[in-house]
């Protein structure tokens, strides 16, 4: 991971994964995270989204997360916020900082924003084909014309963020290095889902 060290304020919210170039709407109501948003808005508008590994206070964290920039904020009268985070880049957690803030801060390596090489045409075609099969099986209505116009990164990361995979699967997708690896894992997960589908609406699980 080509990266630069940085201090990051983090939001360890279970089940809320952000991918580069994607958007994540969040409703902020806990006092410590209201403080996080307020601090972020006064500084660089950045928040590090990262998954907790389990229960506990504070919970242990996965090593890889995604830095988001607050692209939209609505401050409500009672102190809550509605925000939209826009994914900028992945980061690797190096160490937690002993901060006096109510929210957690870490030292992290933020991945350099490099242009991803495009998928090979055959790989892109396989992803679109598997996505159609998956969407049809789930009864999803998809504008395939709009999908075809997406560039490779928007398509791969968009599927990774919105598909009904479980947290372990989505974390594995976030940790995948490069579009090729992430694309291949998405295809495997969709095929796995088709073979192991339970009740309607159940998320894809790696457990």
Shape: globular
SSE order: EEHEEEEHHHHH
Q: First CA to last CA: what distance?
A: 27 Å
Tell me the fraction of residues in β-strands, as a range: 25-35%
The portion of residues assigned to helices is 25-40%
Average pLDDT, all residues: 91
- Overall SS class: alpha+beta
Poorly predicted runs are: none
Strand tally:
6
Cα Rg: 18 Å
Tell me the strand order in the biggest sheet.
Answer: 1-3-4-5-6
Per DSSP, the total helix count is: 6
Largest sheet: 5 strands, mixed, barrel
Please describe what this structure looks like.
The protein has 207 residues and is α+β, with helices and mostly antiparallel strands. It contains six helices and six strands. The protein has a five-stranded mixed β-barrel with strand order 1-3-4-5-6. Strand 5 and strand 6 form a beta hairpin. The longest helix is centred in the middle third of the chain and has 18 residues. It is globular and about 50 Å long. It starts with a strand and ends in a 12-residue tail after the last helix. The model has no long low-confidence stretch (mean pLDDT 91).
């Amino acid at each position: 991971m080509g990266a630069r060290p940085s201090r990051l304020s983090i939001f360890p919210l279970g089940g809320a994964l952000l991918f580069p170039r994607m958007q994540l709407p969040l409703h902020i109501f806990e006092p410590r995270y209201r403080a996080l948003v307020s601090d972020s808005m006064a500084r660089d508008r950045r928040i590090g989204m990262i998954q907790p590994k389990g229960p506990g206070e504070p919970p242990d964290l996965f090593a890889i997360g995604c830095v988001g920039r607050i692209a939209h904020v609505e401050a409500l009268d009672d102190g809550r916020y509605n925000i939209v985070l826009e994914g900028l880049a992945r980061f690797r957690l190096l160490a937690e900082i002993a901060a006096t803030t109510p929210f957690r801060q870490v030292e992290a390596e933020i991945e350099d924003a490099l242009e991803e090489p495009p998928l090979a045409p055959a790989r892109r075609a396989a992803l679109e084909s598997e996505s159609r099969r998956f969407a049809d099986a789930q009864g999803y209505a998809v504008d395939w014309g709009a999908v075809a116009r997406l560039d490779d990164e928007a398509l791969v990361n968009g599927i990774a963020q919105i598909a009904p995979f479980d947290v372990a699967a989505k974390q594995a997708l976030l940790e995948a290095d490069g579009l090729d690896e992430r694309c291949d894992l998405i295809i495997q997960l969709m095929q796995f889902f088709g073979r192991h589908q339970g009740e309607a609406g159940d998320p894809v699980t790696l457990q």
